[in-house]
Amino acid sequence: MDQAQLEQKIIKAMEDNKFGSLGTVENGKPRVRYMAIFNDGLNIHLATNRKTHKVEELQRNPNISLLLGYEMGGTKELVEIEGTCDITKNDQLRQQVWNDDLKPWFDGPDDPNYVILDVTPTRIEYTAQGSEPLVWKA
Description:
This protein is α+β, with helices and mostly antiparallel strands and 138 residues long. The chain has 3 helices and 8 strands; from the N terminus they run H-E-E-E-E-H-E-E-H-E-E. Strands 1, 2, 3, 4, 5, 6, 7 and 8 form an 8-stranded antiparallel β-sheet that branches. The two termini are 16 Å apart. The mean pLDDT is 93.
């Protein structure tokens, strides 16, 4: 399978598995939490409150790990993403990611506490059910 085909499989898996576990580093130790995933191709975004611990952790260390797939309601694929994360209040991106599911936490896309974690993947390992892992690299 060539890189373009692998990219399409990864993108489809992200679209079919809208939740994942985000790993950050706090005081040299891993911290993991469940997050909703928004993507446009391999551009990955996570919505969060700027006052959360994960934002503080990412300001100190932007390296992340994101694991999705093999969950109830999702597919039996696994996608493991390594990369870096920028915290942004880019208005266009906030509008793009915004949806009504975020209303319990934010007043709207202009809420000053609403920020986007913009993930830049450097390595993605994709494993289809019953297959060997395939690796995509930036």
